[in-house]
Amino acid sequence: MSETLLQTKLLIPRLRPNLVARPRLIERLNHGISLGSKLTLVCAPAGYGKTTLTVEWIAELFRESGNRHTAKRPVVWLSLDAADNDPALFFTYLIATIQQINPDVGVDIESTLEPGAAPPIENLLTALVNDITASATRFVLILDDYHIIQEIKVHQALDFLFDHFPQGMHMVIISRTMPPMPLGRLRVQRELSEIREVDLRFSFAETNSFLNDLMGLALASGEVQKLHARTEGWIAGLHLAALALQDRLDKGDVIDAFTGSHRHLIEYLVQEVISRQPEEVTTFLLYTSLMEKFNVPLSNALMPGVNGRKMLDYLERANLFLNSLDDRRDWYRYHALFADFLRQRLRNEQPEIVPKLFTRASHWYEKQGRMDEAIEYAFLGTDLIQAARLLDGIAETLLLVNSEVNKLIGWADRLPLEVRALFPRLCIFHAGALQFEYKLEDAEAILTLVETNLSDSAKLPGNLNMSYVANLVKVTRSYIAGHRGEYEKAIELALLAYETLPESETREVGIVRATLATNLGIMYHFLGQVESAYHFLQIALPLNQRIGLRYPALGCLEYQMKTDFTCGALNRARINGEKGLRWIEEWSYAKGFKRRPARMLAQLRVEMGRLHYEWNNLEQAAWYWKKACKYFELVGSHHRINAYLYLVDLHQALGENEKALRYLGKVERMRLPGEFSMVIIPLYPQIATRNLLISQSQLQLKDLLAEAMEWAQNSGLNPNDEFRYEQEYEYLTLARVFSAGDNNEQAVPLLDRLISSAEGAGRNGQLITYLALQAVAYHSLNDTDQALLILLRALALGKPQGYLRSFVDLGPPMKEVLQIAARQGIATDYVSILLTAFPDNEATSIPLPESWPERGGMDGLVEPLSEREMTILRYLAGEPSNQEIADELFLSVNTVKWYARNIYSKLGVGNRRAAVIKARELEIL
């Protein structure tokens, strides 16, 4: 669970002492679960005791079981607030809530939920429901204050959830208003249990018990009857009436004054209660009411000189609608109705103090290091300079460390342009975030604004490092050019900035040097200049690590892997990939990092899938690609194009043409951002290539061959064209079409040119592909001797690195060439391995597992250990205490114990020592 979340939202409120027992309603709540319904709705206006009743019910469950997490039906709680109208934040908290009873639920989902983002809800919920179902956990999920949610996407999400409800889960929604859900359908299906306003009203007996037994007012039966009739059993009204009647000798006169609607009644009663408090208490009530939640230090910050602890103790004793949110009495909030009237009164009587209080809260949260709350309170206080200053201070971390792109964009967009202009560094990181989202024109406009202001130093902060800002502008422009596919321009801009950097080793210079070197490596990769690409990526990697820029560091490893593939260095690619996966595992639990680097994890899994596919480890390739796809689909990333294309190859290799065509259809339906560079993903040639490969293995699919031919005719490509490296994939596809169409006279010279280009740049991975295809082309021209000569070169390059699929995917024509090579004794051992990899005439389907261990040695286990469990296991081997492990990994002790129990169960042992011994026997430690 992320430590950045407000933990008090996940706490079940404390049960208040001396409550009126409500066994009839407790029984109704129990009955809803016993019937197996999906939802219990507790719905009534403010002040009817909805939350109190639910907490009382939970207390009864606790008394029966002893502990909410070990009960037959554990209970988890989420208190909603206005910020949860952001769907990503809502689901972040929802997952964190459920993880209290099963930390593995939603692990792959939570890192995709960046505040301000718009995740595909259906994909997200499908993954969440699958996780809950797989966990086989029975539990009750309670959502309090659901009426606060106005965002239609959240309502639609719960609607979807009720249609695909996980077995064993029961939801309780507490709301002032009827939620916009398919309640009618749930009623008809007997999936809904309801407790409404008429059920929650106090009966006369309950009113009498409350006023006389609990509040000690000693009222006559007639007086109780009057109050009961006038409040209509409304609990908040009775509570306020009791407070107003305390220590009053003229109780009858006060009761007679209770008239009018609920609103008028509560206005009168609040006035009666407030007017009897000391001025210092009244001020404390008014000032703290602005906070959704507050504690002693925060209340002291709002009212310097006031003893917050003393005031809160007094309010608790006076029973003034103060609710403690935890057992330690650290955090509090007022009853919502009471708080509403306090806030309204404060805004009416002291409007000038309201923004000052929000700003004080912002400064207090800033000192606590809780920047999210600090920024939000600065906005509430309309202190836009404070908000901009705070955002300026964390923009680098948001973008380069945690990759919270949408959060940065969302906050920056809320600042007026004239305020943003005062913080050039913030503007640049804002522009950097925009270009990652392919909002390139918006990013350019912001950079132009920064450059304009740089010429007028009077507009800039006095402590601003002008050189740093100017260099950041160059870095961002270089990245923008790269996103447009203007690689030479990107390199020119980056080299110009890189070569003029000072030799000093300040952090600012280090950030610029690291990001420039990273982009240079990536740009040279896209230009096929592998030596330069690797040179700059190797420079950038330790620079990014040293500064703590984990996303760029992982990006370096990703592009080193891509360059390894281009060079034909598969073994080196594996080393780089495993290094990246290991770093992610370590960083995921390191203190100071807010988010699991899920995007980079998915990218590295794509590359690891490519590696295992080439080696014909199809099960492992499937695991990596499906895991990557799950993430890309959740966030709607365009990177799922490549993952889908690789899954087309996988299913085609397995002879599962329907599945292959299904993924190909997904690619064809993809919609890319308007400014997306098609050079990065040459979409239509990729589709044409897959159409060819599938049609060649399944001759009845002639329409796919026709579509590939049509692409070639309409592409405007000519085999005699001069082409750049970025276009090579398109011309390779053209050569494939020529070969498939028995036009090898044109395929061979085109492949000659591709071969020459790859040879000159050391791109041996691509060279193997070109040579293999040309060998098939020569064989089709009945020039077997030349085919074998070409094949021999491809085999010599491919054997040391274990290339398989680059040959096998060329199908029966390549198999024929290899069989001839085998008969002539050419590279016998390697050719034999290749021939064995070709499928039989009858395609067989290999099952694609949902989970596959990323380390060897787990074959003897019924269920492999997860990445998190492997991390815990390594700590267990070192013999630290559970508390020490928890502190190191930023987890609770209970979570560590939960993982340890899972590890023991999977290893079939009963304690830590036995687990370590068994793990070493399996060679997973």
Quaternary:
single chain
Q: Low-confidence spans: pLDDT under 50, at least 5 residues?
A: 841-856
Query: Helicity range of the residues?
Result: 55-70%
- Largest sheet descriptor: 5 strands, parallel
Rg, rounded, reads 33 Å
Strand content: under 5%
Architecture blueprint of SSEs:
Layout: H1 23-34, E1 39-43, H2 50-65, E2 75-79, H3 87-98, H4 107-110, H5 121-135, E3 139-144, H6 152-163, E4 169-175, H7 183-188, E5 192-195, H8 197-200, H9 204-214, H10 221-231, H11 235-245, H12 251-256, H13 262-275, H14 279-288, E6 294-295, H15 296-302, H16 308-317, E7 322-324, E8 331-334, H17 336-349, H18 353-367, H19 371-380, H20 384-401, H21 405-414, H22 417-420, H23 424-436, H24 440-454, H25 466-483, H26 487-499, H27 507-526, H28 530-547, H29 550-567, H30 570-588, H31 598-614, H32 618-635, H33 640-653, H34 657-668, H35 683-697, H36 702-714, H37 728-740, H38 744-761, H39 764-780, H40 784-798, H41 805-808, H42 812-823, H43 828-837, H44 867-877, H45 882-889, H46 893-907, H47 912-921
Parallel strand pairs: 1-4, 1-5, 2-3, 3-4
Antiparallel strand pairs: 6-8, 7-8
